[in-house]
């Protein structure tokens, strides 16, 4: 393996990051929205003060990333304010399906569900290309995410992950995440919430 470099993502990375998200987080609802919307979402994440994205690259090729936010509600608000028209065009056909429409609302509004009492800062997504998994790269990216949260004065954060994503759950446990609860972001689909104190 060559040297793996970590750096802040730039807007030029959006396409690759969206592709990695789509390919590796298939059970997540965001993936079902398709690459164009994911690109817009990561564009917002990279461009906003409250969010960030760190990429891992080998020979200038992005092979993994992590994204985080200080507050998912303001991320979605920022995203919709900037991209309302484009998002509407992409999302409109999907609203024809009641099930998809419901999932869109569940995704947008899960942060305000009462039962949670959780820190607002959140790890949004982490992916490493399969050819590079099992080599400690995610661990390195994760440490950089923690440093970035610390630089922002954040002392707690959470992740919401599909309970069926066993490797991801094991990874978060190995990274010191404490299982807080199991919730249903979408009906009949369990998600685990892990929390970190920095
Ligand atoms: C989860 C994921 C990011 C881990 O990436 P990785 O680069 O393989 O992880 P690392 O090599 O840094 O592993 C660090 C530790 O995590 C744990 N871990 C990682 N993958 C694991 C797996 N498949 N099974 C069990 N434990 C695992 C191990 O404890 C490992 O430490 P060890 O090797 O000393 O035992 C990767 O599997 C992935 O991209 N999955 C698809 C996307 C995804 O599900 N993301 C999370 C939801 S947002």
Describe the structure.
- With 198 residues, the protein is α+β, with helices and mostly antiparallel strands.
- It has a single domain (4-197), classed as 3-Layer(aba) Sandwich (Aminopeptidase).
- It contains seven helices and seven strands.
- The protein has a four-stranded antiparallel beta sheet with strand order 1-2-3-4, with helices on both faces.
- The two termini are 31 Å apart.
Features:
Aminopeptidase, alpha+beta, binds coenzyme A, 44% helix, 3-stranded antiparallel β-sheet
Radius of gyration: 16 Å
CATH architecture: 3-Layer(aba) Sandwich
Secondary structure tally, helices? 7
Could you please say which CATH topology applies here? Aminopeptidase
Work out the count of structural domains.
1
Q: Report the count of strand segments.
A: 7
SSE pattern: EHHHEEHHEHEHEE
Mean pLDDT level: 88
Blueprint (SSEs and pairs):
Layout: E1 4-8, H1 14-24, H2 29-32, H3 35-47, E2 51-58, E3 61-69, H4 72-95, H5 98-109, E4 122-128, H6 137-151, E5 156-162, H7 166-174, E6 178-186, E7 189-197
Antiparallel strand pairs: 1-2, 2-3, 3-4, 5-7, 6-7
Bound molecules: coenzyme A (COA).
Coenzyme A binds at residues 24-25, 125-128, 133-139, 161, 165, 167-168, 170-171, 174.
Please provide a brief summary of the model.
By secondary structure, the protein is α+β, with helices and mostly antiparallel strands. The protein has a single domain, classed as 3-Layer(aba) Sandwich (Aminopeptidase).
């Amino acid at each position: 393996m060559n040297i793996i470099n970590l750096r802040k993502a730039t807007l030029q990375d959006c396409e690759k990051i969206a592709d990695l998200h789509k390919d590796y987080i298939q059970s997540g609802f965001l993936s079902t929205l398709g690459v164009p919307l994911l690109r817009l979402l990561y564009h917002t994440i990279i461009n906003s003060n409250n969010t960030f994205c760190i990429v891992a690259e080998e020979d200038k090729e992005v092979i993994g990333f992590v994204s985080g936010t200080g507050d998912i509600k303001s991320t979605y608000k920022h995203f919709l304010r900037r991209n309302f028209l484009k998002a509407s065009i992409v999302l409109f056909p999907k609203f024809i399906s009641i099930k998809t429409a419901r999932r869109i609302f569940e995704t947008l509004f899960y942060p305000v569900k009462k039962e949670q009492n959780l820190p607002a800062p959140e790890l949004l997504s982490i992916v490493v290309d399969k050819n590079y998994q099992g080599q400690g790269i995610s661990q390195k990216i994760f440490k950089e995410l923690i440093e970035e949260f610390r630089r922002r004065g954040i002392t707690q954060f959470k992740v919401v992950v599909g309970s069926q994503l066993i490797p991801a759950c094991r990874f978060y446990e190995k990274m010191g995440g404490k299982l807080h609860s199991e919730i249903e972001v979408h009906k009949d689909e369990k998600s685990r919430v892990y929390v970190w104190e920095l």
